[in-house]
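Budget justification aside, the reviewers requested a transparent look at the raw inputs and outputs of the sequence design task funded under Objective 1. We therefore reproduce one unedited record. The lines immediately below are the structure tokens for a 267-residue chain.
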């Protein structure tokens, strides 16, 4: 798809600091190599004021930080290094990861850790938050003037992924920019159904598997390794993230190649 000369500026909307690299790192790296100007805007990259929820403090420790550390600041630095390695620009949104958010009644939104291997309880999606993110994405679109927007399909139903995806769908439609959705990794590796439910008025086209060469695949894996805070959860002896990414891709690919899957969005 990136050999398409009509794509000259690409805006990738990443829910968290690492999703674009994990799910679409090869896609953005290859686009950048082909001369496309690529910007990755990460929605939930904001720093939360303390106090933190018990889940957030637990996550900080899992990430190798102190409970009271400004983890998003640390993660933004990881992101800048990873995306720089892929040859693309980065922008960091102001929104707070769900582990830092409260419900309208003041309680913490998340009372347990939900990683890619766990099932999210039916996440309630906050329409006001979707609307705020949609406005910010529209400002980024006005500035960057992308010829294509790509974001996650929210395979696995993570609350932040669904929220960011819906905001991106609405913003791209408002701005009349075509949009594609990437398959969420590593969610898809852990047997998450590929079935995704889009808001009314949006549908998924046919999946498009885009193979890349070994050099681009290696660059993606090197970029993912630049998020050490996240690798403790995603990788390690039991998880073998990189081997599983390879294996999953070669199973998906008709030619047993490494690549990533995206879908066009139809109205
Ligand atoms: Zn994520």
């Amino acid at each position: 798809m990136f050999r398409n000369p009509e794509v000259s500026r690409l805006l990738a909307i990443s829910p968290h600091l690492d999703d674009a690299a994990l799910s679409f790192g090869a896609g953005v790296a290859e686009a950048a190599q082909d001369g496309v100007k690529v910007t990755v805007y990460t929605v939930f990259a904001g720093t939360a004021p303390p106090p933190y929820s018990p889940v957030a403090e637990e996550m900080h420790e899992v990430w190798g930080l102190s409970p009271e550390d400004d983890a998003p600041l640390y993660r933004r630095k990881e992101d800048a290094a990873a995306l720089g390695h892929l040859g693309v620009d980065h922008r960091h949104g102001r929104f707070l990861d769900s582990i830092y958010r409260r419900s309208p009644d003041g309680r913490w939104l998340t009372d347990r850790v939900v990683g890619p291997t766990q099932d999210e309880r039916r996440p309630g999606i906050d329409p006001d938050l979707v609307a705020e993110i949609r406005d910010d994405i529209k400002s980024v679109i006005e500035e960057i003037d992308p010829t294509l927007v790509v974001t996650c399909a929210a395979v696995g139903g993570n609350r932040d992924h669904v929220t960011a995806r819906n905001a991106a769908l609405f913003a791209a439609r408002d701005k009349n920019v075509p949009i594609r959705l990437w398959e969420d990794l590593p969610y898809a590796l852990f047997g998450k159904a590929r079935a995704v439910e889009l808001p009314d008025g949006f549908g998924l086209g046919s999946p498009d598997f885009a193979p890349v060469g070994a050099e681009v695949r290696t660059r993606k894996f090197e970029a993912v390794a630049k998020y050490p805070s996240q690798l403790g959860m995603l990788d390690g002896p039991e998880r073998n993230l990189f081997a599983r990414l390879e294996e999953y891709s070669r199973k998906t690919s008709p030619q047993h190649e490494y690549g990533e899957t995206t879908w066009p969005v139809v109205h």
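Residues 127-144 form the longest helix (18 residues). The pocket of zinc ion is lined by residues 15-16, 19, 158, 161 (CB under 6 Å). Computational costs for records of this kind are itemized in the attached budget.
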